[in-house]
Amino acid sequence: MTTTQALGKVASELQEERNYLNYPKGIWSWLTTVDHKRIGLMYLFSVLLFFFAGGVFALLLRFELIAPGKDIVGPDTYNQLFTLHGAIMVFLFIIPAIPAALGNFILPIMLGAKDVAFPRLNLLSFYVYVFGASFCLYSLVTGGVDTGWTFYTPYSVETNTNVISMTLGVFILGFSSIFTGMNFIVTIHRLRAPGMTWFNMPLFLWGIYATSLIQILATPVLAITLVLLILERVWGIGIFDPAMGGDPVLYQHFFWFYSHPAVYIMILPGMAIISELIATFSHKKIFGYVPIAFSSVAIALVSFIVWGHHMFTSGQSDLASMIFSFLTFLVGIPSGIKVFNWIATMYKGSLTFQAPMLYTHAFLALFTIGGLTGIYLGTLSVDVHLHDTYFVVAHFHYVMMGGTVMAFLGGLHYWWPKMFGKMYNETWATVSAALIFIGFNVTFFPQFIMGAQGMPRRYYTYIDQYQSMHALSTYGTWILGVGFLIMAGYLTVSLINGKKATKNPWLGLTLEWTTASPPPTENFLGNPRQLWGPYDYDKVLMDENGLVIFNPNAPKDDRHAKDENGSATSHKRDGKTTTMKQTV
Amino acid sequence: MNPFSMPEKASNHASDIDALFFFITDVAVGLFLLITIVSITFLWLYRRKGKAFFTSPISHNNRLEITWTIIPTILVFVVFFWGFRSYLDMQVVETDAMEIKVTGKKWFWAFDYPNGVNSVNELVVPEGKPLKFLISSEDVLHSFYIPAFRTKMDAVPNRYTVIGTRPTKQGTFDIFCAEYCGKSHSEMIGKIRVVSTTEYNKWLEESESGGNVSPVEFGAKLYVSKACATCHSVDGSANTGPTWKGIYGKKHKMADGKEVIVDENYLRESMLEPNAKVVAGYQPVMPTYQGILKEKQIDALIAYIKSLK
Q1: pLDDT at residue number A8
Q2: CA nearest B20 in A: which residue?
Q3: d(CA A552, CA A565)
């Protein structure tokens, strides 16, 4: 053992004694912490709780739909179930899941920073989230809401369910989202480690940056809309009331002006995670760094001007529909480019198939289906037939669950060892990932078929011809449920007696893998520098314990190398590489 | 239900929309297979055998990237123009179109024909006749959706929206409400019957007078066709509204505490001004049937209710 290795061992033992999880101690130190890692974990715990709640609602409402007519609940309860499922999954789970939970934990470490730019604002954002969530829960226990998560007027003004506390909750949650977005933008601008230029940042950070832009710019519009809705309910100000010269369709414009960009608040962080996972588990330089980075920003900007595609049958003008349809196709292209880049990244890589990689491939397959089915819905005349049917339900579940949730699960497994210093059981993780993938498709693919056949969404009961597809869809949720139960099981077990995680179990190159698992409170011992690109798998090899080998044959900077030469010479390099490794 | 087909085609726009639907399907399936096959090939070829090593420095390839940007762009532009053109076709109302007023209410569809006839949840139209649906709502948003016609349009209160279409096939097809509208949204289902012109004229005559049936039988028909059945049962079971079984002659307790004897006048008022007196325990959600029910039809419904002992 060399001296360096010995010193490294001593240093890592010292670190083990004190990490962010066990120091300082006590519940109060958690509740008042300004450590982004602890805040990230508190967020993680909360969003998983709501994911569980939303999932139970989903199981119940799918069970109700197994046959026409009443199976377990009546129409009023059913309407509340799908509303709560949607509202909880969107506002309490999926929007905060990746940025606020995983992002909070990993973003500063990836940047090589000690914390986010405004640690106390970060803690405030968490408590604002809890405050907003408690309004939603209040609404849930005092009779629920039956408007659908979209709160369309005039129904949301007329219904006697608890719309105000739910919308107030969502209004408050919006501030939490804005705080997080602001914090991340400033952090990325100001706290990058020495050596980390904008184009040397991990792509996760580009994705989160683009997401934060939308969070800051779009969320206030939702807040205004919900305030108007509350005023309409309380005082009948008439802005959405046709009897007083208002316009219910105006509500839809307001709502989707936020909620379409919000779709990208949900999917961009998922894409951001996939860029990390595909590179790490292909052990290969990412293909098309610049297009992937810029397509995130392009999607963020174009996402603001496509909201009208939710309203092709609302009676809006034909010209408006035409423009929105055109822009919708435009926003699809950067997403396609990303998929091609991710797949090209695997070319000449060195691929392994642990759970994060399985979820990456689940993402690629399902998100591609979600994206391609978006073409049907962006097409004006075809959308007239498919709008508000199960086709739409299937489409957005393929994007949101097949896309974002798969990426979230991939990210959760990827950073799990870093968060808790423990490894999960890979065999069970594979079983669970397979069940979730199969269950997902059994649940949602039949919905495309039903939708094309004309089955409208938000139906408590339905005519007999749709029954076989509905039943199949319900069976799928049971497979999904089992998959998630297994996951809950092995993740809990890993916390109790999981194998100790090394610094860098996946042989990644981004900065979080250069520090201990779990990291110390200050994230790094000393001040980290970025010495290599985040995806320089051609030049640098970092082993499980963080020891680094440089490739002596790598060119100084290949960024400007000619493509044609690149692929021709790589064979030779690979050959030499092998020789070199044997001598190490 | 054949999972690889679309619903029956019964309007002039259906074929074009289906052709576009299947064109998109071909492109999408092609792209998906391409992506999947390339992925699986890479997964197999480049799986790690042994220990991790330095990998290729390939980071981009301009020619390839331009190709995979331009080809999908061209494909989606083709789809966009095709979709836009067929959408514009759907917006055109033919000049000799027959105008039918479609009104969505919680939770049924009312149809007014040019000659003053009206119907509920049953839309009868002659085959081959161009139609203009003038759509509106009396309460919340609804959406008038006929899958077999591939057409859908929201019903918005205080505003008219329009569908132009022409039925091309005889038969009975579903009408759904596609915009969530509350408790019985999923039961806001009507039928559109496309019939020959002779049959259509015969139907117009009969729906006015009930033909040659007794008032009780006519009332029983109206119970279904005017969508009373959506909210009122005739077997005593609970629903959105009070059951009709044995209701005649009984005392009803109202929401304001008063008691009312259910007689002819009360029943008549409940149809025309449903919210004047609301039975205790029920929501005031019933829409008025003023203008929908003719005198003779009101009489027939009262006769039918009286017969339900």
Answers
A1: 62
A2: A382
A3: 19
Chain A residue nearest residue B43, CA to CA: A351
Please tell me the CATH superfamily of domain A3-550, with its number. Cytochrome c oxidase-like, subunit I domain (1.20.210.10)
What are A408-443's pLDDT values in tens digits?
Answer: 999 999 999 999 999 999 999 999 999 999 999 999
Q: How far is B181 from chain A (nearest CA, A)?
A: 7
Domains belonging to chain B, first-starting first, are 1-40+62-209 (2.60.40.420), 215-307 (1.10.760.10)
**Whether the predicted pLDDT of A577 surpasses 60:** no
* Intra-chain end-to-end CA distance of chain A, in Å: 13
Question: Which residues from chain B sit within 8 angstroms of residue A446, using beta carbons?
Answer: 3
B36-71: burial string, b at 16+ Cβ within 10 Å, e else: eeebeebbeebebeeebbbbbbbbbbeeebeebeee
| Confidence grade of residue A581 (pLDDT, cut at 50, 70, 90) | very low
- Is residue A584 pLDDT above 60, yes or no? no
Q: Judge whether A114 is closer than 8 Å to chain B, CB to CB.
A: no
Residue B235: what pLDDT?
86
Establish if A275 touches chain B: CB-CB under 8 angstroms.
Answer: no
List of residues 6+ apart from A496 with CB closer than 8 A: none
- Inter-chain touch A351–B47, beta carbons under 8 Å: yes
Residues 6+ apart with CB under 8 A from B26: none
Cβ–Cβ below 8 Å for B59 and A347: no
Task: State the Cα–Cα distance between residues A455 and A447, nearest whole angstrom.
Answer: 9
- From residue A126, alpha-carbon distances to A220, A262, B24 in Å are 18, 19, 44
Contact list in A for residue B174 (CB cut-off 8 A) is 454, 463
Q: Which two tokens stand for residue A472?
A: 């199949």
Helix axes A248-282, A406-420, angle to 10 degrees: 50
